[in-house]
Amino acid sequence: SFLSLDGDPRLDQIEQQVATVRGLAPLRPVPRWAITRYEFSTYFVDPILDEHWGEHLDSLSLALSAFDMKSSCVNLEAFLRYFITNSVAGFYDPTTGAIYVVSDTGSVSSSLFAHEYGHALQDQHFDLLALGYDEFGFTLDGMDGFNAIRALVEGDAELIEARYSGQLPGDGVCGRQVSVGAVQTWPVALSPVNIDSRQDEPP
Description:
Distance between the termini: 24 Å
Number of helices: 6
Helix content: 40-55%
């Protein structure tokens, strides 16, 4: 079973800071879960490949090979199954309204959580599924439209994360007073996922 991260005071504080940085008040609590890579593969990755992408993978593999973007000896399905399972550090799922941290130890990166909580605020105020943002439910034939929406949603979340982490001049809440107001434009131009570089980041 998944490990609940609800009630963690550090994550509670990050939520408050992100809401201030983004200028959006939370409308409801966001469940938080830590899941192992095995659980992530079983409950999320396998259904994507088996139920949503399966019938398209052969034609996609042929197209990639035709443009010399993939060796003919590479099994695309096996590659994607391995890559997705091992490259995701966390995600927000708009179908459940929950944040999932992919970690075999249960540790949570502060910047990763800030990014994903930004997605939760986006969803509560703008309805990501209605916009067409469903990283685990989109089909390959709808990839162009999904990528357009994803650029908007992820751009906003990256800005939230940068401001939370103090990567923009005058911004940040880590050890400094918050000096930014609401971001006035949404969305701005969801990595579908947060890549491993964040996994070893200290909390």
